[in-house]
Amino acid sequence: MTSPIPWSTSDPISVAPADSREPAVTTAGETLHLLWTKDKVIYHSARTAEVWSAPVLVACGEQPALATTPDGRVHCLFVNQFAGNYEIYYVWWNGAAWSLPQPVSRTTGGSQQPSLAVAPDGSLHATWADTTPGFSTIYHGQSDPIAWSSEPIPNGRGSAPAIAVTPNGDVYLAWQDRQLDTLRYEVYGSILHGETWSLPDIVSDTPNSHSLQPRLATNAQGGCHMVWQEESDGIYRVQHADWRGGGWSTPVDVSATEADCRLARIAAIRQGLLEVIWAEGPALRHRVRPSDYDATWWNPEIAPDAYAGLCELALAISRAGRVHVVSCQVEASGVRRLYYTQREPLYKHTTFAPVG
Fold first, then answer.
1. Residue 353: pLDDT above 70?
2. What confidence category does residue 349 fall into, taking pLDDT thresholds of 50, 70 and 90?
3. Which of 303, 324, 325, 333 lies at 20 to 30 Å from 9 by C-alpha?
4. pLDDT tens digits for 15-54?
C-alpha cells in the first residue's frame, strides 16, 4: 500500500563525516550529486538507487555551487585562497574524476559567494561578490572554450548573488545590498538581454525591513521567479516575485504563517510548477504554485521529521520531478551533520504499452 506521506524520513548521510557543511546539490538524470565542505576541503558523493557512493575529493576550497548541463556533465564553482586572495575556481566531473581547477574571477579583490547557471546552449554563467572596487560588488562571468570572462555588472553593488537563465537566453541576477540611509538590506534584480544589463530594480522595496538571501528559478514557460526572506515584526517571512516583462511583480508572502521562516529555496519542474522549501522553526515546509501569473499557491506542506538546529538547505529536483533536499543541522553536542530527505514527484509518469 502506498504511504499517504510523500516525504521520506530525514536521515543522516553516512558518507559525510561529522562537521560537514555547505551542501550543494544537482541532478544528472535521476542521479543526485552532492558536494560539501569539511575543514576547507570539498568532497563529492552521488546517490543512485538509494545508495551514496564513496566520497571523492574535489579540491581544496569552500562554498561549492553546482549545475548540470544538457549533456549530463556536472559543473562546480568554489572559493579558494591563493597567494593571500580569495578567488573563484571552476571544475567539472567527467563521470569518474574531477578536472583540475580553472580560475574564474581573476581579480585583485576578494571573491566570494559563487552561484552557477546553465544557458539553453549549454554554456555556463556565473555570479559572485567581489571587493575589487573597494566595496562588495556583483560580478558576472561566462564560460567559453578558452577561459571565463569576469566583469562587474553596472551599478551592481551588494552581496549574496543568485543567477538563473531563461529559455530565450536572458540572464537574471539577484542580490542584497544595504541602504545607506536606513542601513536595511533590500533585494535587487538585473537582467542581461543580448549584451546589455538593465539598471538594477529594487524588488523587495521595504526600506524599514531587512530583505535577504534571494534565490532565482526559471521555468520552461520562460518565467523568472525570485524568493527571499523578509523581516516583519521581529521574524522573517518568505516572499516571492516574478518578472512581468516591464518589471517585477508585487511581492507575495509565500510562507503565510506567524512563525519565523528562513533559508528559502526555489526550483521549477518540467511542467512549469514552482516548488519552494524553507525552514520554519524546527520544521521543513514545502509549497507549490502553477506558472501562470498570479496563480494561487497550493496549501503548504510539512515534511514529517523535526529539523531542529537546521542552518543550511540545498534543493534539487530531478527530471522526473523527485525533490531532493540536503540539510545541515547543528546537533545538541554542537556538531554539524548533513541529512537527506526526498519527496515523491508531484506527477506520476505512466507508460502505456502499444496496442497492436
1. no
2. low
3. 333
4. 999 999 999 999 999 999 999 999 999 999 999 989 999 9
Give pLDDT tens digits for 275-290: 999 999 899 999 999 9
Amino acid 270: pLDDT = 85
204, 202, 203, 297: which is closest to 257 by C-alpha? 297
Asked if residues 289 and 297 have their Cβ atoms less than 8 Å apart, the reply is yes
Sequence spans of domains, the chain: 20-343
Specify the CATH number for 20-343; select among 3.40.50.150, 2.120.10.10, 3.40.50.300, 3.40.50.880: 2.120.10.10
From CA 122, how far away is CA 36, in angstroms rounded? 24
CA separation for the pair 65, 160 (Å, rounded) = 13
